[in-house]
Amino acid sequence: MRETHLVRMAQNGDETAAVTLVERHYRRIYAYLRRLSPDAATAEDLTQETFLKAWVALPSYRHSCRFSTWLYSIAYHAFVDRHRRDARTERRDEPWWEALAADGDDPYSTAARNGEGLALYEAVHRLDDDKRQTIVLHYYEGLSLRETARVLGVAPSTVKYRLSQGLALLRSGMADEPRVCSTEMHEEEEST
């Protein structure tokens, strides 16, 4: 069933449609939040909070963007709110990175298969929040430039700038390992 139809049914109180939407999006939203969170429990809490906020706000969803983009926006704001409340930054260790869920083949999965994934994940984590969020949404989650901009509440040109700056920092920080996704990431950036 088409997602637009499911959303409209859920907006009209159809619980089966709502459950189907959760089933379709839960894993990706959790994976996104897990990449950002210090532990699995926090990611689970944030995922639950995201879907709770989504269902409360569902009547106001106007179909001006993809439903998944709208969910990522809610998840992003839930994370930022939690991060501000906690006001702590934790270093993620190797087991944390190894526990990350990933969907599909993307530059990061390719790098991981080549034994370079951990270094890349750690390098992305060391970026400032703006660049890290932008890279995670665009490359990990596969959102377009426009969708990433909508989630972050910035202009598409800001997304392009953050991607360019973030990728430049990643390339310069990992210059000793020339195969680390820089070519693949650059090609994907140009095709977007």
Write a structural description.
By secondary structure, this protein is an all-alpha fold. The chain has helices at residues 3-11, 15-36, 40-57, 67-86, 94-98, 107-113, 117-126, 129-140, 145-152, 156-173, 182-191. It is globular, with a radius of gyration of 17 Å. The chain folds into two domains: 1-90, Rna Polymerase Sigma Factor, Chain: A, CATH 1.10.1740.10; 102-192, Winged helix-like DNA-binding domain superfamily/Winged helix DNA-binding domain (Arc Repressor Mutant, subunit A), CATH 1.10.10.10. It is 72% helix and 0% strand.
Number of domains: 2
Uncertain stretches? 175-192
Shape from CA axes?
Answer: globular
Count of DSSP E strands? 0
List the secondary-structure elements in sequence, H or E. Answer: HHHHHHHHHHH
Specify the CATH homologous superfamily of the largest domain: Winged helix-like DNA-binding domain superfamily/Winged helix DNA-binding domain
Helix content: over 70%
Q: What amount of the residues lies in strands?
A: under 5%
What is the number of helices? 11
In whole angstroms, the N-to-C terminal distance is: 28 Å
The CATH topology of the largest domain = Arc Repressor Mutant, subunit A
Q: In CATH, what is the class of the largest domain?
A: Mainly Alpha
CATH architecture of the largest domain: Orthogonal Bundle
